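Handoff note, outgoing to incoming analyst
You'll be picking up this chain. Sequence as last confirmed:
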Amino acid sequence: MTRLICEAFDRYGANISVEHAGETVQTKGFVQPLMKETKNEPFSMEVLGAVDERCWRYLGRACVAEGDTVTFLGVRYIVRRASAVPVGDEVAYYQAVLHIEEETA
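Most recent structure output, in case you need it:
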């Protein structure tokens, strides 16, 4: 089963760069926006300005953990939370919720 999942990532996945534990890995995977039906704006106003609340989903074979960086199509994302997805006794792939890395001045 994990072989089929790996083949699907290799065949259909996009090129993604993952920075994990001080190392950068090139992998194949998917980054997709997480959409929920709402009539609210995708941001909230805080004391210091607007906060972007949009999130994206990462699916891929490269290990990710909270605080890691995922780069896809030139956009850097920070991992908010991540988990391994097992199939039997093996890790089939990793999934994570991402947000866009904020630029610092």
